[in-house]
Amino acid sequence: MPSDSGSSSSPMPSPDSPIFGPEHIARILRLSIGTVCIGLLIWLLGDVLMVVFASVLCAVVLYGLARILRRHLGVSHAWALTIVVLALLGSAALLVWNSGPAIVSEVIRLQEALRQQEMALRDTLQSTPTGQMILNYLPASLGGRHTGGDSGLASLGSRIAGSMTGILGSAFGAIGTLIVVLIAGLYFAMSPATYANGLLRLVPEERRPIIRQLLLRAGQTLWAWVAGQSLDMLVVGTLSGIGLWFIGVPLALALGVLAGMCNFIPYIGAIMGAVPALLLALSLGTRETIMVAVLYGVIQFFEGNVLAPVIQRHAVQMPPALTVLSQTLFGAILGFPGLIFASPLTAVLLAMLDSLTKPLAEADRI
To answer: Phi first, then psi: what are they for 76, rounded to 5°?
Structure first.
């Protein structure tokens, strides 16, 4: 059929057209190779990258506090950072001196109470056909009967050996990692310009202004996220502890601190902080369990609909669906550290993307 001479449609580019030339193919190859190399680097060095990011996050906190102190007292950065570090160390030492034994005692009591509730829940499940079916499909690590084909004695021995090794390894590994993060964060906070300028020297000269802008935007975003999340954790932990104390749940202080710390991880952390309180409330009765569930539901409703929007108005605004999906993605790639730091990582990536792209015009918006 002959084509319409008035048609404005352009013909499809052929392989011989300039768009498929050697330069275009080379650009695609460079982009593909770079993407693959970055993916392999994240996969192979994920733990190291998480330690570096945690150190940068720690440095942002220390530098931000020192900047506030420097602004109000008019002292140099070195003196302001020294005062901040000494104040944090003194507060930690005072907390350990005054409340350390009580906190350790409550943590031990909490572990024992949760262990007893686990046994009681297992006995309850064993007494019903539905509960026995659930136990048959639950893995042995969660208290179920599903062993994956291993013999009982071998499975028990491997679990005991694995548990002892895991406890020792995680304890020493966590302490060592925490020390590395704190020391590296302190050095980063002492002279952040030195490390930022060293990173800029590795970038081609024509791209340095863009990378410099991205680094500054990332630092501002991390500080805003930490400030907002710290306030959120403080409010959630305080409300949880006071509410549990009024209900009469034992270990209300420890459970409140746990709820506040778990709220560092948005959405998923709320569930992690509520589970121990609900398990302890089961020992008090159905009424107390319902009250605890309602308490955590009201606190999370207040946090999600009142507190978080107010904080995000002055800090970092992230869509809820993107936050949950980022936790799933970073958790799958980087494990539990990726789950913990998914929100600040996403906030930084969104800030960089916002700096690199132009805002949509009104005609292009949906």
So the answer is: -75, 165
